[in-house]
Amino acid sequence: MAATYQVEHTTRYVYASPVAASQHVCYLRPRELPYQYVHHHQLHIEPSPASGSRRVDAFGNHVHQFQILRPHSTLVVSAESQVDVCPRGEIDVEHSPRWEAVARELSGRPVSMPAGVAEFAHPSAYLPFSEAMGRFARPSFPSGEPVLKGAIALIRQMHAQFTFDSSATTVTTPLSRVLEDRRGVCQDFAHVAISCLRALGLAARYVSGYLLTDPPPGQPR
């Protein structure tokens, strides 16, 4: 049975001095997926944009671009979404392919891979190949290890060794520094995990979304 989520997301910018004009790109509409259906999505922007456009990018993400062409000191972008999420079956971790076989397939002509998978095995500007990342990941991927079991082991290794510290990094902090210091924020840890997997020849990508968490007693969700 599907669970229905009501998601309210607000981003507020407060500028030190009035901004004459600004251009923005936002990715706030949840994706349509085999297990996810979007009943409703609405975007509220204040001050009102002079123009805007919508498109779907090459990865299937909904993109909303808009321009504000009058002076403003604040910008508030609010998104409301109602989404049905269906339960998915248990993942058979033990019987997933051996990681070496997956890496070999990706290094050649990945004819058996789903469309779009192979491109996520390559380095990028923010995720360069790193021998250090490979060395960090290898203990989680012994010979013959099922690929999903190795990935879970890598995540657990990071959880045990890394410390969440919002003051340790910025958006320009290189991954080598994050790996060395073992400190950072969620995005840093996601990038480290992706870089580790790609260093082993595996495909991995960044996913952004919402988690329904349980707050401490007496605190709002």
Helices and strands in order:
Elements: E1 3-19, E2 22-26, E3 36-46, E4 51-56, E5 62-68, E6 72-85, H1 99-107, H2 131-137, H3 147-161, E7 163-164, H4 175-181, E8 183-184, H5 186-199
Parallel strand pairs: 7-8
Antiparallel strand pairs: 1-6, 2-5, 3-6, 4-5
Helix pairs in contact: 2-5
Would you kindly provide a written description of the structure presented here, covering whatever features stand out?
With 221 residues, the chain is α+β, with helices and mostly antiparallel strands. It has two domains: 3-85, Immunoglobulin-like (Sandwich), CATH 2.60.40.2250; 99-199, C8orf32 fold. It has helices at residues 99-107, 131-137, 147-161, 175-181, 186-199; strands spanning 3-19, 22-26, 36-46, 51-56, 62-68, 72-85, 163-164, 183-184. A three-stranded antiparallel β-sheet has the order 1-6-3, with no helix packed on it. Strand 4 (51-56) and strand 5 (62-68) form a beta hairpin. The longest helix is centred in the last third of the chain and has 15 residues, at 147-161. The chain is globular and about 60 Å long. The mean pLDDT is 93.
List keywords for this structure.
221 residues, alpha+beta, Immunoglobulin-like, C8orf32 fold, 2 domains, 3-stranded antiparallel sheet, 8 strands, 24% helix, 29% strand
Q: Strand portion, in percent?
A: 25-35%
Q: How are the strands of the largest sheet arranged?
A: 1-6-3
Structural class: alpha+beta
Overall geometric form: globular
Mean pLDDT level = 93
How much helix, percentage-wise, in residues?
Answer: 10-25%
Could you name the CATH class of the largest domain? Answer: Alpha Beta
How many distinct beta strands? 8
Low-confidence stretches: none
CATH domain fold name of the largest domain:
C8orf32 fold
What is the radius of gyration? Answer: 21 Å
Order of helices and strands: EEEEEEHHHEHEH
Q: What is the total domain count?
A: 2
